[in-house]
């Protein structure tokens, strides 16, 4: 019985992603963002509970990737598609309705990222490239910032140049040979987890100060701390 518990939680991740996708196509992107957060919690819990119960299975691994493809692959591409549609009437002479499909580049590179992860033995305790949940949280935070922000946020986010550039950058980061640490604690010592503790402390400070606007900055902080960690290890 216990071997089915992680898979059931993975299915809740998938269901949350399906609901997020429904609200995205209804142009209710704030609800989509909240459901992405719920899906991310389930995605974290299924792996943690599988480790606690010793309930690893090949079907669980494949199910996790399939669920992630919906929640953290199709959903962010759809959010970017819907955001691009809000930016105006045209971009570089092309109708914005056509340009908006460029957002699904994120979906394509998310699929590549998940396929690479499944066969990459280097990614057992850390990541190579931006994890799809982190990428999706970044993209899904943009509607939250718009909802709770001001005219400046609208001017910056609902700019086709900004969104197209983000789409290209995030797609690249998904498959880049960029080592990133994982939030997995084997113990609670500062020596072994200093970068994780620093990340969590700074993230809390950013959320207190900036609220929803902190979310993309936290993802950027995650990448920067990973680069610093890698550089410090290389110098040693």
UniProtKB/TrEMBL annotation:
Transmembrane ranges, per UniProt, are 31-54, 91-115, 127-146, 152-176, 197-225
Checking PROSITE patterns in the record gives:
CDP_ALCOHOL_P_TRANSF, PROKAR_LIPOPROTEIN
Highest rank taxon of the organism = Bacteria
Keyword Coiled coil among record annotations: no
Mind telling me which Pfam families this protein's record contains? CDP-OH_P_transf
The alphabetical list of record keywords is: Lipid biosynthesis, Lipid metabolism, Membrane, Phospholipid biosynthesis, Phospholipid metabolism, Transferase, Transmembrane, Transmembrane helix
Record keyword Transmembrane helix present? yes
* Cited InterPro entries: CDP-alcohol_PTase-I (IPR050324), CDP-diaglyc--ser_O-PTrfase (IPR004533), CDP-OH_P_trans (IPR000462), CDP-OH_PTrfase_TM_dom (IPR043130), CDP_ALCOHOL_P_TRANSF_CS (IPR048254)
Protein EC? 2.7.8.8
**Where in the cell?**
Endomembrane system
Tell me one GO molecular function of this protein.
CDP-diacylglycerol-serine O-phosphatidyltransferase activity
Q: What is catalysed by this protein?
A: a CDP-1,2-diacyl-sn-glycerol + L-serine = a 1,2-diacyl-sn-glycero-3-phospho-L-serine + CMP + H(+)
GO CC terms, sorted: endomembrane system; membrane
Q: What is its main location?
A: membrane
Which biological process terms from the Gene Ontology are attached to this UniProt entry? phospholipid biosynthetic process
Instruction: Tell me how this protein sits in the membrane.
Output: Multi-pass membrane protein
Protein family according to the UniProt entry: Belongs to the CDP-alcohol phosphatidyltransferase class-I family.
Designated name of the protein: CDP-diacylglycerol--serine O-phosphatidyltransferase
Source organism (scientific name): Pontibacter cellulosilyticus
């Amino acid at each position: 019985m216990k071997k089915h518990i992680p898979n059931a939680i993975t299915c809740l991740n998938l269901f949350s992603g399906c609901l997020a996708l429904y609200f995205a196509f209804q142009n209710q992107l704030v609800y989509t963002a909240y459901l992405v957060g719920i899906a991310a919690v389930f995605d974290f819990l299924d792996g943690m509970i599988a480790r606690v119960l010793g309930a690893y299975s090949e079907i669980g691994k494949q199910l996790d990737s399939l669920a992630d493809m919906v929640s953290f692959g199709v959903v962010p591409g759809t959010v970017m598609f819907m955001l691009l549609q809000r930016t105006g009437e045209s971009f570089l002479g092309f109708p914005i309705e056509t340009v908006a499909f460029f957002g699904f580049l994120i979906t394509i590179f998310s699929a590549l990222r998940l396929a690479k992860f499944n066969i990459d033995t280097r990614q057992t305790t850390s990541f190579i490239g931006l994890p799809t949940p982190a990428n999706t949280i970044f993209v899904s935070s943009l509607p939250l910032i718009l909802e709770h922000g001001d005219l400046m946020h609208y001017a910056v986010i609902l700019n086709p140049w900004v969104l197209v550039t983000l789409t290209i950058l995030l797609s690249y980061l998904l498959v880049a040979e960029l080592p990133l640490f994982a939030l997995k604690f084997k113990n609670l010592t500062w020596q072994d987890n200093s970068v994780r503790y620093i990340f969590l402390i700074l993230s809390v400070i950013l959320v207190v100060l900036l609220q929803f606007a902190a979310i993309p900055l936290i993802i950027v902080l995650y990448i920067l701390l990973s680069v610093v960690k890698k550089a410090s290890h290389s110098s040693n």
